[in-house]
Specification:
By secondary structure, the protein is α/β, with parallel strands linked by helices. The protein has three domains: 96 residues, Rossmann fold (3-Layer(aba) Sandwich); 168 residues, P-loop containing nucleotide triphosphate hydrolases (Rossmann fold, 3-Layer(aba) Sandwich); 45 residues, no CATH class. Helix content is 45%, strand content 20%. The strands form three sheets. A six-stranded mixed sheet has the order 6-7-5-8-9-10, with helices on both faces. Helix 13 runs antiparallel to helix 14. The relative contact order is 0.08.
Length: 421
């Protein structure tokens, strides 16, 4: 883990581009989100720079002329960190650092910094460290520019290059160790998951700060940390959920999604995000009070596709209804998203309606079936026990009659194993 200690609030300049197909208002909203991220990481936004350009400059991102203008603003306003809303290439970072003589951070680096600050458990710290090292590996050249010479020819293969290669080997070795550690964690999770096959599993997902943890606490009477900040929750937490009618349910709270979530982070949090992959029902929590809530919906849906979860049963839950001033907005949502629910977890509004909808969804998701197997077909019998809750078994001379309950996805798997296809 790369430990980050901040003694004083840093003064930040935020930078974004409006490229050929970009919407100006949306770029401004993204920059406001970047300001929230910066505040979470410990930086005060002093200046915001939006540059209109056909495409990003490969050397200086905003172009050399604009970068030189920014250098003057940096010095005039005592800026000590410049944060970009897009990911920068190692070349761009090196050029900008050399010109500005200030810290340069891109969006992925900032999000990783926040995750490092928020990681509390051993698993979260391991996952974040892995993502950080994978992010740093191609960017090592800038860390050693004080040792390496910038021009080619004889005499340039000095200690800087040697140090970079040594550092790369060390980081690769550490990455392999962390991957092994996370593989063990994932196998433990699979063991836990198999012991929960009798329970219907529900996962809360949503854009960061949509109110998932507040809803989780309300439904399960848990005491999970909830705060009105981005990425308040990193670790997945699972608790029993009682909806009545003897339904065995487990509810999981998961890490929030965000626009341009670093790919290394998604990969590193694989074991945590497995709670979403293994869910029977996904509750997509949406902050209805946010001006760009529909863009947040698209970000979450795209992330679910990356996790191969787009075919799972999903319910849209529009939260923070109490913070919505325009009634027309609520009417719009109810008309456009027919099966969605509008609630307020903070005020407890329409929570009974949510529980009723969940109960109905669980009844639709789980099926009770019967199957006859030859006694010698141990593979099929093992599959039924592994993928379903066995309710009853009756033995004949050459066969076994099994009554079981499972979700529709596992039901299809059992039929494929038994009947082929």
């Amino acid at each position: 883990m790369i430990e980050i200690i901040k003694k004083t609030t840093e003064r930040a300049m935020l930078v974004a581009l409006i490229t050929k197909d970009a919407d100006k208002h949306l770029v401004e909203e993204h920059l406001s989100e970047l300001a929230e991220l910066s505040l979470t990481a410990g930086a005060e936004t002093i200046l915001k720079i939006i540059q209109q350009k056909y495409s990003a400059d490969p050397a200086f991102y905003v172009g050399k002329g604009k970068a030189e203008e920014m250098k003057q603003l940096i010095e005039m306003n005592d800026i000590n960190i410049v944060i970009f809303d897009d990911d920068l290439s190692p070349v761009q970072v090196r050029n900008l650092e050399k010109l500005f003589e200030r810290k340069i951070v891109d969006r992925s680096g900032l999000i990783l910094d926040i995750f490092a600050l928020r990681a509390k458990t051993k698993e979260a710290k391991t996952q974040v460290e892995l993502a950080q090292l994978q992010y740093m590996l191609p960017r090592l050249t800038r860390a050693w520019t004080h040792l390496s010479k910038q021009y080619g020819g004889i005499g340039t293969k000095g200690p800087g290059e040697t140090q970079i290669e040594t550092d790369r080997r060390t980081i690769r070795y550490r990455i392999n160790l962390l991957k092994e550690k996370l593989d063990k964690i994932e196998s433990q999770r699979l063991t836990q998951s198999s012991s929960r096959k009798d329970f219907l599993k529900i996962s809360l997902v949503g854009y960061t700060n949509a109110g998932k943890s507040t809803l989780f606490n309300l439904l399960t009477k848990a005491n999970v940390f909830a705060e009105d900040k981005l990425f308040a929750t990193l670790d997945s937490t699972t608790r029993a959920l009682n909806l009545g009618k003897n339904q065995k349910l487990l509810l999981s709270d998961t890490v929030g999604f965000i626009r341009k979530l670093p790919p290394h982070l998604v990969a590193s949090f694989k074991s945590t995000l497995n709670e979403v992959r293994e869910a029977d029902i996904i509750l997509h929590v949406i902050d209805l009070s946010h001006h760009y809530f529909e863009d947040h919906i698209l970000v979450v849906e795209d992330t679910l596709k990356e996790l191969n979860c787009e075919k799972k049963t999903r319910l849209k839950i529009f939260n923070k209804a109490d913070a919505v001033e325009e009634k027309a907005k609520i009417d719009y949502v109810r008309n456009k998203y027919k099966d969605a629910l509008v609630i307020s977890a903070k005020r407890g509004i329409n929570i009974t309606g949510l529980k009723d909808r969940l109960l109905k969804s669980t009844e639709e998701t789980f099926v009770e079936e019967e199957i006859d197997l030859e006694i010698t077909n141990s593979k099929a019998a093992a599959a039924v026990h592994s993928l379903a809750e066995v309710l009853d078994k009756k033995y004949d001379e050459n066969s076994i009659h099994i009554t079981y309950k499972t979700n529709k996805e596992n039901s299809e798997k059992i039929k494929k194993i038994v009947y082929g296809g």
